[in-house]
């Protein structure tokens, strides 16, 4: 705490012995020791309080940073989810259009041979009674 050498402490003790006297010197030294101990405890308490406050401030800053990063992650996640939903919706709409177009074209192709008057498919002669259902099969 203080930069006092051993010789300086001896000098202070000799001056105190001369000024205070040998009868009161032990009582004064004891009182000075108690006061110095109290001062050291008080300084230690103040240091620990300051350290706690600094740590509390650091924790609050860390908490704010974590909350900010959590918000940014949540926002980016929400935007990615929205983009994915839009992509899925667009894909579904495109597939729906393709299916409708394919259905319309197949309906148009099915309607075309009947209206053009093209050759009709050959009719199967009716099966004779008692004949097998399949050609080449046995009854």
Which keywords apply here?
0% strand; rod-shaped; 77% helix; mainly alpha; 139 residues; 2 helices
Characterise this structure.
With 139 residues, the protein is an all-alpha fold. The protein has one domain. The chain is 77% helix and 0% strand. It is built from two helices and no strands. The longest helix is centred in the middle third of the chain and has 92 residues. The protein is rod-shaped, with a radius of gyration of 51 Å. The mean pLDDT is 84.
Write the layout of secondary structure elements.
Layout: H1 6-20, H2 25-116
Measured distance between first and last alpha carbons: 120 Å
Note poorly predicted spans.
none
Q: Please identify the structural class as seen in this structure.
A: mainly alpha
Mean pLDDT across the residues is 84
Give the fraction of residues assigned to helices.
Answer: over 70%
What is the overall shape?
rod-shaped
Number of helices: 2
Give the SSE string.
Answer: HH
- The proportion of strand residues reads under 5%
The beta-strand count equals 0
Provide the gyration radius in Å: 51 Å
* Overall tally of domains: 1
Let me know the largest β-sheet. Answer: none
